User: What shape does this take?
Amino acid sequence: MDRSKWACRHSRILLTVIIAIGCVTHADTVCATTVYDVSGTFFASGPSNPLTGPLNGGTFSGMFTATLPTPAVQVFTTFDINLFDSSGALLFSLTPSNAVSGVQQGSVCVTGPSTTGPCDVFDFETPGINNFLQLVVPRGFTGGAVIPGFNLAGVPSFAGVGGVLESNQSFVESGTITSTPEPNSLMLFGSGIVACGWMLRRRVGIWWNDSGSKRRPHPCE
Assistant: This one.
């Protein structure tokens, strides 16, 4: 085989692979759900706190994937939420191997001392609701602060380790749910690969001569 044609064939194969990788990256990013980070704190024990669970004064953190704002009901298949006590010891990890998770629309939730309205409720819980985290946010939520649970009627934000008794539960003092930037970055990266690969693919049909002063048809054509 002529050496120039051999080089041409391999260069075109390489560029085709580049374009394919870019297309797959772009498509996966567009179709994929978004990764969300979640974190927050629980109210400490005290005379005014009716709940005395082991999470009092502790924290929660983790991630889940979802499409927000949510439809009426959405089940999460990827999540990892850790519940820590006030000393930082891990009391429980909520994952698909031991728990279920999702978000649904609530009819009436308290969003302040005297304000009520519809909400979205995020649930992460083990079968039998022995260990769980529930976070309440305004309807149409796409990220930001969760509604704290202390001294609020209606649907509160709270968690529990060991069951739903007051001695096992804790109210959420503060919390946030925020999307991670990776999906958008990957989409831009994939789009760039597609664009660059396509431009190079079109230029393969032009071949410079040895002097570099004139162009002639590429030997593969």
Q: What stands out?
A: Residues 24-31, 204-210 have pLDDT under 50 and may be disordered.
